Amino acid sequence: MPPTKPGPVGHRIAYYRRLARLTQQQLADAAFVSLGAIRKIERGERGVSDDTLDNIAAALGIDPSRLVANREHVSTRIRDALPALSAAIATYDLPDDGPVRPLPELRTAVAQTTAWRLSAQYLQIARTIPDLLGELARAAATAPPGDAQEVARLLVTAYRSADAVAYKYGARDLSARLIDLMRWAAPGAQDPLLTATVGYVRTETFFAAHAHTAGLRALEQTLDACPAPTCPQTVAARGALHMRAAVIAGRASQGDAADEHLDEARLLGGQVREDIYQGTAFGPDSVRIHEVSVAVSLGDDHVGRAFDVAREWAPPADMPAERRSGFYVELARAQLWGGMADDAFESLKVARRIAPQHTREHPWVREDAATLRRLKRADAESLTNFAEWCHAD
Q: What does pTM read for this prediction?
């Protein structure tokens, strides 16, 4: 694609550079571009190619979508990368010849994709994950016995990061294939907690198909096989499954089951002081977020429970951006159902500030922005701009 036009992008780069407390020289070094280029970009004297923009965003620790006015450009780049991802997983058992980095380097590369997933930096994943999956497939085919279990774990984790992109951007068939590959690779890790994580992620396919009752059964089977909660890691694994089960039970209109699973999650959450990341985050803060999710899943008569949580608590800044953003998306839906249109719009704007890509591609954001637009027909230009930004009808 052509370079990003000069002007506003340079101003945004300068803003985020100062926010990160970097000098122009430090940013240039970290982004592998010249100091002169950074100066010209920030002054608006030259445009920025996609590769340079990506390098600058990576150096600043933010998603490239925060640096450009035309965020459709970023979404298009992600969708353009999906065929390469599809090709990479089509050859999961027949990888092309190529290099394989040492295991510590592969571990670092996979950890980076997880960090991008948690911070909703989907473009960064889309750019790098096809090659990484190919490399991990080669590693799995050639791993000595002593490394095979860890390579299998890395492969499952990388598939999950790839699935985040596919699922968020509506490629549901691709997402289902990635989840099947997670299930295929997980036994090689010989780790029941990883298997529990895969069971958690598999629920996406049931959400997408609106097969909520079947999804609840699948999660309860995973819970039956999950190790007893005897340490923080097993507490986190079981707690995350109960949180997920509570939400999908709510979607299945099984209020009693939703409350039972949520009660179990609260009990387990009380056994840890703060959220633990064990495939997915679990702890007292995550339970509060899922209390809102369950209230919204159960529908109009239960939205007061979401307001009760929001009055007393807000997601802490160190919580993964994707989950924080999701809290405000769901709170906005509850507020809209509760007749609090202005509050709902404010919550959607908070979600966008936290994780713009995640918010923009969330189907509820589009639905609720369209509803708000209809309710406030001739109202603020900012609402119209928001609705157009997220492609609300």
A: 0.87
